[in-house]
Amino acid sequence: MLKHLALLWCVLAAVLNAQEYKAVFDCSSDDARYIHSRISLIEKTLQLIEEQGDKAIFAITVHGGCFPIVLGNYDEFVANEDIQYIQKAQETMKHLSEDKKVEIVACAMSLKANDVDTKEVLPYIRLSKNSFIDTIGYQNKGYGIMSFK
User: Fold this and answer.
1) Contacts of 24 (CB under 8 A, 6+ apart)
2) In angstroms, what CA-CA distances link 142 with 41, 89, 101, 136?
3) Which pLDDT belongs to residue 8?
4) 66: which residues sit within 8 A by CB, 6+ positions away?
5) Closest by CA position to 95, among listed 19, 42, 56
6) Integer Cα distance of 98 and 138 in angstroms
7) Mean pLDDT score of the chain, rounded to an integer?
8) DSSP type of residue 64
């Protein structure tokens, strides 16, 4: 019985000492290779936080030149040599969204500015009227902002 109480105490102490990391990653870059590297880094960062017993609550906002990563059909917006990076970024984003509950938000204003129908947005991505409003909202809720331009 005493062993069980000691184990319970250790687990409780670990849970109470766990830190919570909240960040919004704001993407406006049009460099597909760079976008892929940053999305991969978000995944690795989340993994490291979880490995140390802490909690990560992340969001990604997408606007400006970054908009092709949220589209099912992005070929006309991305150079042929960059398609592989968009594909890899999307695979990672899908995993982050579905398995790690990372919220990914696309800016409808950016899509409209590029003549993109919002029906092209991938199903795991939330559409926002203006991602600046979302980014400010995350900051107001205590999220640190990490930009990749």
Assistant:
1) 58, 59, 60, 61, 134, 135, 138, 139, 143, 144, 145, 146
2) 21, 26, 18, 10
3) 52
4) 27, 28, 29, 30, 35, 110
5) 42
6) 20
7) 91
8) G
